[in-house]
Amino acid sequence: MTSITPSIQFFAGVFEELSNISLRREVRTGKRVVVMLFSQLQALERFNSFTKPSLNSLLLTDEEGEISVTPSATKFIFGGDEGDELQRVEFDILTGLKPR
Q: If you average pLDDT over every residue of the chain, what do you get?
């Protein structure tokens, strides 16, 4: 049996590294949201997003298979002295989990 390293892709062949993940509840609707944080995106490095085909979703792969999900929101957070350095990217994904 071969082991597959879990991966995340927004663009075909451009593998992203997840920095953090959390589960939140939207105050307004009560829906649960998975928030995936990235400290950098390979898709932005060397303009990979312009040279690779878009998957139009997030492709999550591990030894059990693949899941394709579409984020419900994307937030780019900038900082630094000039305010133009990418600090992190947050992707919100609505879950099928029902609030209690």
A: 80
